[in-house]
Each structure stands twice: as structure tokens, then as C-alpha cells.
Design goal:
By secondary structure, this protein is an alpha/beta fold. The chain has a domain at 26-32 and 40-122 and 139-158 and 176-191: Rossmann fold (3-Layer(aba) Sandwich), CATH 3.40.50. The protein is built from 6 helices and 7 strands, in the order αβββαβααβββαα. Strands 1, 2, 3, 4, 5, 6 and 7 form a 7-stranded mixed β-sheet that branches. A hairpin with a 2-residue loop joins strand 5 and strand 6 (131-144). It is elongated. The protein starts with 7 loop residues before the first helix and ends with a helix. The relative contact order is 0.17.
């Protein structure tokens, strides 16, 4: 009976290639083909909905998103205090998921051409066996002020447990770095 030799290097290479293909997340974005995104100058960002166990996740991700959006130099972001006053004056019960009419009224009140809403679905430590790493996932929608219709939607994620974390240990990257990278991915989708 002959024994077959299994060459370890080709097997590992095939395994790593398969894992890397599985790890690439499909990015689904929507850009309204009839919208001239270059004409947008002022944006209001509403509080983000928070579906995580971290009570500050929505606020934190919104703050990073607004800062990086303003830093892009392409749009003026209405300060969060002005947006908050607008929400209060309109008595919006659900500022994280406003109606089209709410969008129109708020945008007019704060002088924005578009309004952005967001949802944070993952934020914090992810554990698998003895390994842990930080992860962040969120999505945003940009709505036109005059109609309240969605002109852009996208989502992004960063962090998580990698094959290297599983094989060699380690706790992944810090939460602030994971958050910044996820926000950058989403802004790249928006400005693409």
C-alpha cells in the first residue's frame, strides 16, 4: 500500500486563499442616478440608531462620521447642537427614523440640502473561543431635503477576528481605529 504525501504548503495556501475570499464582504451601495451630488453643500446628520449593547455607540459613531465628513472639505456639516435644537423645536419623537415630512421640515429649519440618518449594528468586542477583537458595523442613508427620498445608502464594517488572531492570538485593533476605518470605507462609497 502506497502512502500519499500531502504537501503542507499548497494546502495552507489554498486554505488561506479560500478564507480571504470568504472574508471579503460584499458592499452594496445605492446612488440615485438622477442626483447631482456635486451640488450638495450643506448636510445635517441626525442621531444614529444604536442596535448594540454599548449605550454610547450611536453617539460615538455619529461624532466620528460627522468629523470625518467635515474634514473631507466637500460639505458643510450642520453642528450637532443646531440639529438637536431643530429636533426639539419640531418635537420629533423618533429622530433616528424620521418620516419624509420630518426630513423636509428639519432640513428647512437648519438650512440643510440633505439629511443623513444612520444605524450602528455592531460596536465593541467580538469573541470566538479564546480569541477576541473589536468590530464595528454601521449604515447610513442620505435623504434629499425637498422630497425626503433616499439618494444614497451604504454600509461599512471593520475589525473582527482574523485568521492571524486565531492562529497567533492577539486582541485585534483598538476600537477607535476600527471605527475610523469603517467610517472611511463608508465615506469612500459616498464620494465614489
Amino acid at each position: 500500500m502506497r502512502h500519499r504525501r500531502i504537501h503542507l504548503v499548497p494546502v495552507l495556501a489554498a486554505l488561506l486563499w479560500g478564507v480571504s475570499l470568504a472574508a471579503k464582504d460584499g458592499v452594496a451601495t445605492y446612488h440615485d442616478p438622477n442626483m447631482d451630488f456635486g451640488s450638495i453643500q450643506t448636510v445635517a446628520v441626525l442621531p444614529f440608531a444604536n442596535l448594540t449593547g454599548n449605550t454610547k455607540a450611536g453617539e460615538t459613531v455619529r461624532d466620528v462620521f460627522m468629523t470625518m465628513l467635515q474634514a473631507s472639505g466637500t460639505l458643510y456639516v450642520v453642528p450637532p447642537g443646531e440639529v438637536g435644537r431643530g429636533i426639539g423645536r419640531l418635537s420629533l419623537r423618533e429622530p433616528t427614523s424620521p418620516s419624509s415630512e420630518d426630513i423636509k421640515q428639519l432640513a428647512q429649519l437648519v438650512g440643510a440640502e440633505v439629511v443623513i440618518t444612520g444605524v450602528v449594528s455592531e460596536y465593541g468586542e467580538l469573541r470566538s473561543g479564546g480569541t477576541a477583537a473589536n468590530v464595528m458595523t454601521f449604515s447610513v442613508r442620505m435623504l434629499e431635503a425637498q422630497t425626503g427620498k433616499v439618494i444614497f445608502s451604504g454600509s461599512a464594517s471593520d475589525g473582527g477576528i482574523t485568521l492571524a488572531n486565531r492562529m497567533f492570538g492577539g486582541g485585534g485593533r483598538p476600537m477607535n481605529e476600527v471605527t475610523r476605518k469603517a467610517v472611511k470605507k463608508l465615506l469612500d462609497q459616498l464620494f465614489d
